[in-house]
Design brief:
- With 265 residues, the protein is mainly alpha-helical.
- It has one domain.
- It is 73% helix and 2% strand.
- It is built from ten helices and two strands, in the order αααααααββααα.
- It has a two-stranded antiparallel ribbon with strand order 1-2.
- Strand 1 and strand 2 form a beta hairpin.
- Helix 1 packs across helix 2, helix 2 packs across helix 10 and helix 3 packs antiparallel against helix 4.
- The chain is elongated.
- The N and C termini lie far apart (45 Å).
- This is Membrane protein insertase YidC.
- Interacts with the Sec translocase complex via SecD. Specifically interacts with transmembrane segments of nascent integral membrane proteins during membrane integration.
- InterPro entries: YidC/ALB3/OXA1/COX18, YidC/Oxa/ALB_C, YidC_ALB_C.
């Protein structure tokens, strides 16, 4: 077992345990155990558990963004003081003064990426679990907390004619149904991402210098991340896209609530 596999193993087990718990609960409530919507709702349940656990991180992120907005005038003073000075010593001094300001205000310019970074292991774990189902099912193997029968059930489960374990790039099932459903979900998750960043920018960047670190960071998040997500979507199984889409809609809902009622320090 290599280092990456060893690091990801606990996340794979945790993701699969939550997935199985929701699936078994839905099956006990009367939904078909092998049904595509049963497994889809189990994935939605997984999103809800992970995102609910990250609410404290989100609240801390909002407070940090507020501090970043408040320190912008001081950052601009530092930048103006070193404007036009391109020597290494001046650039280093300016960077040190900026870091001192971040430390003073208890923030940093990369705080907006924290929830995404925390979610990454869970997303990768779900990808590894679901992408391995197609090869595990014919061999009668389980994956994580998913037993052999559950792996077989998931492998045959589909929604709108598209298997949850299929992807655009690697195929599986009706290729047209897979491509159409993946395309629709990619559009939804990109739209949710764009609207989320628009809400963040409207709340925290009003009146800011267009060349400030916070503005540059938001431009990256606004335009680069949706492109990355859209291109990456063709690699992921439908089940992973369900997770990704619901997670982005959750984020949009959080930001909408915050824009209506700002969180205080």
């Amino acid at each position: 077992m290599d280092f990456f596999t060893a690091v990801m193993e606990p996340f794979r087990w945790l993701v699969s345990v939550i997935l199985v718990a929701f699936h078994d609960g839905l099956a006990a409530a009367g939904m078909p155990a092998a049904g595509g919507w049963t497994w889809t709702l189990a994935i939605v349940g997984l999103v809800l558990v992970i995102r609910a656990a990250l609410i404290p991180v989100f609240l801390a992120q909002v407070r940090t963004q507020r501090r970043m907005r408040l320190l912008q005038p001081e950052l601009k003073e530092v930048q103006d003081r070193y404007k036009g000075r391109t020597d290494q010593a001046s650039r280093q001094a300016m960077a040190q003064e900026q870091m001192a300001l971040y430390k003073k205000h208890g923030t940093n310019p990369f705080s907006a990426c924290l929830p995404l970074l925390i979610q990454a292991p869970f997303f990768l774990a779900l990808f590894q679990v679901l992408s391995g189902i197609s090869s595990a099912a014919p061999q009668g193997q389980g994956i994580g907390a998913l037993g052999r029968d559950q792996v077989v059930q998931f492998d045959s489960a589909s929604i709108f004619g598209a298997p949850l374990s299929a992807s655009v790039l690697h195929g599986g099932g009706d290729s047209t149904a897979v491509a159409v459903l993946a395309f629709v979900m990619i559009l939804v998750l990109i739209a949710a991402q764009l609207l989320t960043q628009k809400l963040v920018a409207a709340r925290s960047l009003a009146g800011q210098d267009s060349e400030s670190p916070l503005m540059r960071q938001q431009r990256v998040l606004l335009y680069v991340l949706p492109v990355v997500f859209g291109v990456g979507g063709i690699f992921f199984p439908i089940g992973v896209l369900v997770y990704w889409t619901v997670s982005n809609l959750w984020t949009l809902g959080q930001q909408f609530l915050v824009s209506r009622k700002p969180i205080q320090n």
